[in-house]
Design a protein that fits this description.
Helix 1 packs across helix 2. This protein has one domain. The protein has a 3-stranded antiparallel beta sheet with strand order 1-2-3, covered by helices on one side. The protein is built from 3 helices and 3 strands, in the order ααβββα. The mean pLDDT is about 90. It is of the alpha+beta class. The radius of gyration is 14 Å and the shape is globular.
């Protein structure tokens, strides 16, 4: 994860309105997610945690729900990564 992605995540948490698709691409990419093209929506998933997945529309303007989903997915990713660190330390 990059510091730019972390800053973008904090901004999205403060305000979920008026974001563009390019912003979602930046945040997902910054946290290591992979975006693949589907028919009407693109698929987003994390290579290390395949259970973390969603879809995003190709529209330039994004509904708030897609920002909320991104925040939840990334928060869950950070929890899972923290859990992996704690397991490594106790082993």
């Amino acid at each position: 994860m990059t510091s730019k992605a972390e800053k973008l995540l904090e901004q999205m948490k403060r305000s979920k309105s008026n974001w563009k698709r390019i912003d979602l691409d930046k945040i997902y990419d910054g946290f290591g997610f992979i975006i693949t093209h589907g028919s009407n929506h693109d698929k987003v998933k994390h290579p290390d945690f395949p259970e973390l997945r969603t879809t995003v529309p190709r529209h330039s303007s994004i509904a708030k729900v897609y920002v909320e989903i991104a925040i939840k997915l990334i928060d869950r990713l950070l929890e899972l990564k923290e859990g992996d660190k704690n397991e490594s330390k106790s082993s």
